[in-house]
Design goal:
heterodimer; A: mainly alpha; ABC transporter involved in vitamin B12 uptake, BtuC; two-stranded antiparallel ribbon; about 5% strand; B: mainly alpha; 17 helices; about 65% helix; globular; disordered N terminus
C-alpha cells in the first residue's frame, strides 16, 4: 500500500485520472443513450469506437500528417479527424442498428438475443479490420493502405500535438493534451445534455425513453428516435476515438473490447440510462483506476475497478445517480 | 394472450414437429433410440468420413485431430450444460462463466501438479517426497468445491442486482479471476503457467497407457461420460422442485416470491450448481492440456460460452449441446480458410439469431413464449 505516493502526488493522480475518465465517459454515453431508450446493452458499441480510431488514423494518413506538425496543420488535422471520426462511428452505429437490431425488434425478441447478435457484429467488425481489409488493401500501394499493412498488429500513428506542460500548480502539472481531452469531452457532453434536455428532438428521445406507446400516440416517430440515439452515441464514440488517437497514438483491431468494457462499467457505475451518470461514472472510474494503481500496482487496476463497481452497486443498486434518461430533468 | 390461436396455428417449426413425433413414440422405442444415440456418441471418434471427421493435423504425421476436436467439443458441451442451468433455467445472464472454468482448471493444476507452488509448499511443510502431489480424483473434488464456493461468494452480493447489472458484474468476476491468476505469481506461477497437470492416470508421461498425449480417444470417452452423467443430473434437477422454482423465478420473480419461492435462495443454487459444472469442465480441460496459463481464460471465450447457449436454444439441453458442438466444430473444421473463419463465424451468429431468435433447438416453453411475443409485436407495432 503506497499511501505516501498517493498523498504526495494526489493532484497529479487526480489530473491523470480525470483525463482518463473523460474518454471513458464519452464512450459510456453511447451505452447509456441506447440503454435509456431501448433497455438494451449495445455490446457492439466498443467496435464503433474501434472503427472511429481507424477512421481518424486513416484521415491523418491521407493528409500525409507527420510527427509534431505546425500548429495550424495540427488544428486542421484534429477538426477534420473529429468530423470524419464522428461520421464513421455514427454511421457504423446506425448500420449495426439496421442490420443486427431492427429485424429483432420487429420480432420482439428477448434481450439475450440482441446480446448475441451484438457479439456477432463485434466479431465481424474486429475481423473486417484485422483480416478482410488488410487482405484487400494491405499491399495495394495507395497512401491509406499503410493502415492495413500489418494485420492484427498495434499500429502507431503520428503525434499530432506534442505533449507539453500547459501549466503547473504546486507539484501538479497539466499537459496540453490532457487539458484538451478533458475540456473537449466536457464540452461535448454539455452539448449532448443540452440537446437531449432542450431541443425538440431531445424531447422525442426522452418521451420514447419514458413510454414508447404514449410517445408514439403523441406523434413521436419512434424509429427516427432510435436511429438518432445510435447516431449520437456513435458520434460521441467517434469523438472519443479522436481524443484517444491524440493522447495515445495507437490503435488495433481489438482495441475496442477492453475500452468498451471499461466504458460500460462507467455507465453502470453512474447509473445506466442517465447521461449525467455516464459523466460521473466515467470520471469516477478514471480516478478509481489511477488511485488504485498507485496504491497497489498498475497490474491490479482492472480488479480494483470491478471491485469498486460491485461495492457501489451493493449500496446503490441503480448506480451513483440512478437510471433515468426520461426523468432526468424532464 | 393468444395461446389457443397459436396452438392451432399451422406454423409449427420442423424441429418442434420432430420433437413431438419423438415424444409420441412408445417408451421402448424411445429407450432403444436413446441407447443407440449413446452408443453412437461413444463410437464417434472412430468415425472416419474424409472432410467431415478427418482433420489434418501437424501434430502426428498423417494423423487426424478429430478425437481432439471431439474432446474439446465435449468439454464445451459440459460448459454449455452448466451455463444452461444459470441462463436457460434460472434466467440469470452470467458473462463471467469462464471464471468457474478457470477455477476448476487451477484447482487441479495447483493441487495435482508437482510443479505448482502450492504442492511444493505442502511438500516442504510436511516433509513429503518431491514426487508427491494430490491425486486426480481428490483434485476433482477440491476443484468442484472451490468452484461452488466461489459461485456462492460471487452470487451472495450480486444476485440481488437486476439482470443487466448482473451481466457486467459477472464479466468483471471472470476478469478478476484471470488477473489474479496472472498476478499472484507466488501461488499460480503467473504467466509462466502450471505444467505437468495430472490426468486420471497420474502426471503426464510417455508411459501412460490410456490417457496419453497422442491418442485422445480415451480423453473423449472420459469427457462424454461426464457429459452424460451431468445431463442426467441436470435433467432430474430440472424436473424437481428446484427446477420448477427456477422456472417460476425466471418468468416472474415477484410472483414467485409471493408464492413462497425465495428467489435469492434458488438463484444462488443455480449459480453454485452452474459453477460446479463449469469447474468439472475446467478440470478435464486442464488435465488434457497438462498445462494452463492465464491467457486461456480470456473474456472473449466467456462471451462465446454464452453464445453457445443462446445460439443452440437456451433452456434445452439438446439445443445448447448442439450450439457448443457447432461453435467448436465449425472454426476447427474451417481451419484451412483460417483467416476468414471468425469473420464467417460472426456473420453466421448474426444470421442465426435474426432468422431463429429462439435458437436452433429451442425449449418448447421458450418457443411458445417467443411466438407470443412476436404476435404481440404484430398487434401493437408501437411496442419496442
Amino acid at each position: 500500500m503506497n499511501f505516501d505516493e498517493l498523498i504526495g502526488q494526489f493532484g497529479q493522480h487526480t489530473v491523470n485520472g480525470l483525463s482518463k475518465g473523460a474518454i471513458y465517459a464519452l464512450i459510456a454515453l453511447g451505452y447509456t443513450l441506447v440503454y435509456g431508450v431501448l433497455r438494451l446493452i449495445n455490446f457492439a458499441h466498443s467496435e464503433v469506437f474501434m472503427v472511429g480510431t481507424f477512421a481518424v488514423f486513416g484521415t491523418w494518413t491521407a493528409m500525409g500528417l507527420q510527427n509534431n506538425p505546425p500548429l495550424g496543420t495540427a488544428i486542421i488535422a484534429l477538426v477534420v479527424g473529429l468530423i470524419v471520426g464522428a461520421v464513421a462511428s455514427g454511421g457504423t452505429a446506425l448500420a449495426i442498428e439496421r442490420v443486427a437490431y431492427r429485424p429483432l425488434r420487429k420480432k420482439n425478441a428477448p434481450p439475450l438475443v440482441f446480446l448475441i447478435t451484438a457479439i456477432g457484429v463485434s466479431l465481424v467488425l474486429v475481423e473486417v479490420f484485422g483480416v478482410l481489409l488488410p487482405k484487400l488493401f494491405g499491399d495495394s500501394g495507395f497512401t491509406m493502405s499503410t493502415l492495413f499493412s500489418r494485420p492484427r498488429q498495434l499500429l502507431g500513428m503520428p503525434t499530432v500535438l506534442e505533449h507539453k506542460n500547459l501549466f503547473t500548480i504546486g507539484d501538479t502539472s497539466v499537459t496540453n493534451v490532457q487539458a484538451i481531452v478533458f475540456v473537449s469531452a466536457m464540452l461535448m457532453m454539455f452539448a449532448l445534455d443540452r440537446f437531449i434536455n432542450k431541443t425538440r428532438y431531445g424531447r422525442g428521445v426522452r418521451a420514447v425513453a419514458q413510454n414508447p406507446e404514449t410517445a408514439a400516440l403523441m406523434g413521436v416517430n419512434q424509429e427516427r428516435v432510435i436511429m438518432l440515439i445510435f447516431v449520437l452515441g456513435g458520434a460521441m464514440a467517434g469523438a472519443a476515438a479522436l481524443l484517444w488517437n491524440m493522447r495515445f497514438g495507437v490503435t488495433q483491431n481489438t482495441i475496442g473490447f477492453v475500452l468498451g468494457l471499461k466504458a460500460f462499467t462507467a455507465a453502470v457505475l453512474g447509473g445506466i440510462g442517465n447521461l449525467r451518470g455516464a459523466l460521473v461514472g466515467g470520471l469516477f472510474l478514471g480516478l478509481v483506476e489511477v488511485y488504485g494503481a498507485t496504491l497497489f500496482s498498475s497490474q491490479w487496476e482492472d480488479v480494483i475497478a470491478f471491485v469498486v463497481l460491485v461495492v457501489v452497486l451493493m449500496f446503490r443498486p441503480t448506480g451513483l445517480l440512478g437510471e433515468s434518461l426520461g426523468r432526468a430533468r424532464a | 394472450m393468444s395461446q389457443s390461436v397459436n396452438a392451432t396455428a399451422p406454423h409449427v417449426g420442423r424441429m418442434e414437429a420432430v420433437g413431438d413425433r419423438w415424444r409420441a413414440l412408445p417408451k421402448w422405442q424411445r429407450s432403444l433410440g436413446f441407447v443407440a444415440f449413446v452408443a453412437f456418441l461413444y463410437y464417434l471418434p472412430l468415425l472416419g468420413i474424409p472432410g467431415l471427421t478427418w482433420f489434418r493435423t501437424d501434430y502426428i504425421q498423417g494423423g487426424s485431430s478429430w478425437a481432439g476436436t471431439l474432446f474439446t467439443c465435449a468439454i464445451y458441451v459440459l460448459v454449455a450444460i452448466g451455463l444452461n442451468v444459470v441462463i436457460g433455467l434460472a434466467g440469470l445472464l452470467d458473462l463471467g462463466y469462464i471464471g468457474f472454468f478457470a477455477i476448476g482448471a487451477y484447482g487441479v493444476g495447483l493441487f495435482g501438479s508437482v510443479n505448482s507452488p502450492v504442492v511444493k509448499a505442502i511438500q516442504e511443510r510436511f516433509d513429503l517426497p518431491a514426487t508427491w502431489a494430490v491425486g486426480w480424483a481428490i483434485c476433482l473434488f477440491i476443484a468442484i468445491t472451490l468452484a461452488m464456493v466461489s459461485g456462492v461468494l460471487l452470487g451472495w452480493p450480486t444476485l440481488r442486482l437486476r439482470g443487466d447489472y448482473l451481466a457486467i458484474v459477472t464479466l468483471g468476476f471472470g476478469e478478476i479471476i484471470r488477473i489474479v491468476a496472472k498476478n499472484v505469481t507466488t501461488v499460480t506461477n503467473g504467466n509462466a503457467g502450471i505444467s505437468a497437470i495430472p490426468g486420471p492416470e497420474g502426471p503426464p508421461s510417455a508411459t501412460n497407457t490410456v490417457f496419453g498425449l497422442i491418442d485422445l480417444k480415451p480423453w473423449y470417452w472420459l469427457a462424454i461420460t461426464f457429459v452424460l452423467i451431468m445431463v442426467f443430473f441436470v435433467r432430474r434437477l430440472e424436473h424437481s422442485r428446484v427446477g420448477r422454482a427456477w422456472l417460476a423465478v425466471r418468468e416472474d420473480e415477484d410472483a414467485a416470491a409471493v408464492m413462497g419461492v425465495n428467489p435469492f435462495k434458488f438463484k444462488l443454487w443455480a449459480f453454485a450448481i452452474g459453477a460446479a459444472l463449469g469447474g468439472v469442465a475446467g478440470v478435464l480441460f486442464a488435465s488434457r492440456q497438462a498445462f494452463i496459463d492465464p491467457t486461456k481464460f480470456d473474456p472473449m471465450t466467456s462471451i462465446l460460452f454464452v453464445a453457445m447457449v443462446v445460439v443452440g436454444g437456451s433452456g434445452n439441453m439438446m439445443g445448447v449441446s448442439l450450439g457448443a458442438f457447432l461453435l467448436v466444430y465449425l472454426p476447427e473444421r474451417f481451419r484451412g480458410v483460417a483467416d476468414y473463419r471468425f469473420l464467417a463465424f460472426g456473420v453466421a451468429m448474426v444470421l442465426v439469431m435474426i432468422l431463429r431468435p429462439q435458437g436452433l433447438i429451442p425449449s418448447r416453453r421458450r418457443a411458445r413464449e417467443l411466438k407470443d411475443r412476436a404476435a404481440e409485436a404484430e398487434e401493437a407495432p408501437a411496442h419496442v
